[in-house]
Amino acid sequence: MSDIEFLNAPLVFKMLAALALLFAVLSVTLRNVFHCALALAAMFILLSGVFVLLDADFLAVVQVLIYVGAVVILMIFAIVLTEKITSETVRQTNQLLVPGFLVCVATLAGALYVLTRVPWPSGSPAAQKETIKLVGTQLLSTHLEAFEVASVLLLAALVGAVFLGKEITRR
Amino acid sequence: MSVSVEFLELLWILLPELLPSPLYALARLGVAFVAVMAFIVVMVLFAVWFERKVIGHIQVRIGPLHTGRWHGWAQTIADAIKLFLKEDIIPKGVDRPVYVLAPLVVFVTTVVVYVVIPFSRNLVARDINMGILFVFAVSSIATLGIFMGGWGSNNKYSLLGAMRVAAQIVSYEVPLLLSVLGVFMLAQTLSLNGIVEAQKGLWYVFLQPVGFVIYVIAGIAEVNRLPFDIPEAESELVAGFHTEYSGLRFAFFFLAEYANMFVMSALATVLFLGGWHGPFLPGFVWFILKAFFFMFLMVWLRGTYPRLRVDQMMSFCWKVLLPLAFLNLLVTGLVMSFI
Q1: Mean pLDDT of all residues in chain A?
Q2: From B26, which residue of chain A is nearest by alpha-carbon distance?
Q3: Least CB-packed of A80, A166, B125, B243 within 10 Å?
Q4: How many domains does one find in chain B?
């Protein structure tokens, strides 16, 4: 990233962050569910732009690959297969509006509390040239337990999905 | 030809010394953009003519013959001009912003992919160390564009086509990525230039034959070519997701389709056929020749095989290609750790 360091100015970050926030808000406020999903995809792409600015290129690429390429596509599948979900008369909220709002506020408060207390390292550390190598070795040494737990969880989700997707035949 | 290519390569190396850093970066991006756009247009015009001629001869016809005198070489240029002059029609019931944006999303993502393709040692717009992952990530956004086109058109054939595309691309992406992993393990890098450099002595097609076959099959499915063109099956879906598009918007989808075919061919060249490596001719020419070998292969398959059924295609992906790709990965890992 040496010769585009002039792009690394805070202005680019601000623009990306503002646009990401805009699309995040749009993804929950738009009336049409399909448009919401598209706004969510745009938000993920902008977020990966922020990751690029932070020299986390592996994270940026994987963000687009997984979230836009798989998660949003699956959501759109669900939307398209559901009848009349995109009509204007569908209610935007349900009876969990107030508890949901309270949980969100609590999460925000907790995040702000942590963010303001943590002593952030000042000065930028040297950019990692081989992020992917670092991620790989860390994942299979320092964070092996978390990696294994995640894989077991994914396996369980896979088995569950197969069970749900299978046609149940009555005996 | 070869002199001008070498001059361009020399210019590519010398320019960073001549211009100050930010100006150089901007100029380089601009030049790369113009060059990529020009290349895509010329390549697509040629590829369409090439396909029509080859498929014609496979079916014992002659294909286009009159426009431009020599074997109808100007036929696709005439077709393109006709497409550009067409009236811009937007059907009444469409979801307007989505309908208008869809061709742009598909086309722009395809163009962005060309940024990392190494046409020769120095002829690459930007060699990033996530090269191949970048290609797959950006192409996965194109699926979204196809879905937008199918849904925004507000037409059942478009929607069915879009759903088939998405199902097909999401499924075949899995064996595709897994087949490429074997190459990463051998090359120890994700940079496309690095992968080509690593094949200086021996092409990976000889070390990864199974991976190569999986890549070619899954790659053809990714670009929706026969025998995997179920999303646009003319006999059942009119034209699939772009049924409602005409004129310039259709031209964008069309350009993107052929540009994507070339991306798949170019990646196969980079990953398995040693990229620009080759004797006598300059690297750029070797690269184009190898890539067009794959283009020819796709046309050949189109002329040879009938279309698959949806269920056949899905079960082939999940029950044959995926286990094979895992096996290939396992064997590669075992061999590499014991040798």
Answers
A1: 81
A2: A4
A3: A166
A4: 1
Residues in chain A with CB shorter than 8 Å from the CB of B16 are 3
Phi, psi for A55 (deg, rounded to 5): 65, 20
Chain A residues touching B22 at Cβ < 8 A = 3, 6
Residue B88: inside a domain: no
For residue B229, tell me if it sits in a domain: yes
Which residues of A sit within 8 Å Cβ distance of B? 3-6, 32, 34-35, 38, 41, 45, 57-58, 61-62, 64-65, 68-70, 72-74, 76-77, 80, 129-130, 132
What integer is the mean pLDDT of A59-78? Answer: 86
The domain of B112 spans 94-338
Cα→Cα distances A41→A47, A136, B115, Å: 10, 27, 22
Domain layout of chain A by residue ranges: 1-84, 129-171
Select from B219, B333, B200 the least CA-distant residue to B278.
Answer: B200
Share of chain B above pLDDT 90, in %: 4
Q: Which of A46, A58, A65, A135 to mutate to test binding with chain B, by most B CBs within 10 Å of its CB?
A: A65
Residue of A nearest to B129 (CA): A130
Q: Which residues does chain B have with pLDDT short of 70?
A: 1-3, 12, 15-22, 231, 233-235, 238
Cβ proximity of A51 and A57 under 8 Å:
yes
Residue A10, amino acid: P
In a domain, B200, yes or no: yes
What are B10-45's pLDDT values in tens digits? Answer: 776 776 666 666 677 777 778 888 888 888 888 888
pLDDT of residue A153: 95
DSSP sequence for B88-156: ----TTS-HHHHHHHHHHHHHHHHHHGGG--SSSS--S---TTHHHHHHHHHHHHHHHHHHHHHHTT-H
Q: Do B130 and A61 touch (CB under 8 A)?
A: yes
**A120-138 confidence digits (pLDDT tens):** 766 666 565 677 778 888 8
pLDDT of residue A44: 92
B293 in a structural domain: yes
Domain A1-84 has what CATH class? mainly alpha
Q: How far is A91 from chain B (nearest CA, A)?
A: 20
Q: Structure pTM? A: 0.82
Does the pLDDT at position A22 exceed 70?
A: yes
Q: Cis check for the bond before B16: say yes or no (omega within 30 of 0).
A: no
Percent of chain B having pLDDT more than 70? 94
